[in-house]
Design a protein that fits this description.
By secondary structure, this protein is mostly helical. The protein is 63% helix and 2% strand. It is built from eight helices and two strands, in the order αααααββααα. Helix 2 packs across helix 5 and helix 3 runs antiparallel to helix 8. The chain is globular. It binds iron/sulfur cluster (2 copies). One iron/sulfur cluster binds next to loops.
Length: 174
Amino acid sequence: MMIDSCYSGSVESRIAAGQSLYQLLADQLRKDVHFMHEFAKLIGHAEDVNHHMGSMRLAPLCIQCSAKPTGGCCSLFMAGETDALQMLMNLFADIEVIPVRDDGNECIFLGENGCIFLFKPMFCLNYNCYHIHEKSTSAEIAELERLTGVVLCKHYELEQYLLGIIRRKHDGEV
Ligand code: SF4
Ligand code: SF4
């Protein structure tokens, strides 16, 4: 598989690429002690972010905002921030990576209870709108930024590790 197809093409083609990668690599990754150890850390970091967002009560804010005629920030355009490696990591965490809406308006991964991903695209995770800033304390925002930074670093690290495996497979070394 060409690395380019992980990051380009339609969102549907990236979902297909993520699923192909999962079929190709899942067994190998489960036996990879280093990967499994680091992946468990990534899950823990993502759960820390979700826990903190929960304590900040961001979900009700976003649900309310999305229900307005102008909609929230998870637009259809933003689905283009996803990539096949990020989808592979979500599949590996037992997330069913499929489109959950098709209204031609909002992101196809925006479910009834928010984004379906445990590991969100970098841009999505980094985005804190003015509504969030308005209703939160600076300490809450600082902690949110710290926790998202930790997730994104680990996400990037594992993405590079996976890219190395894919390149070696492509070159016939593994
Ligand atoms: S992050 Fe902000 S703009 Fe996006 S849905 Fe939530 S409240 Fe609305
Ligand atoms: S956070 Fe999730 S639902 Fe929202 S735009 Fe990003 S991928 Fe789509």
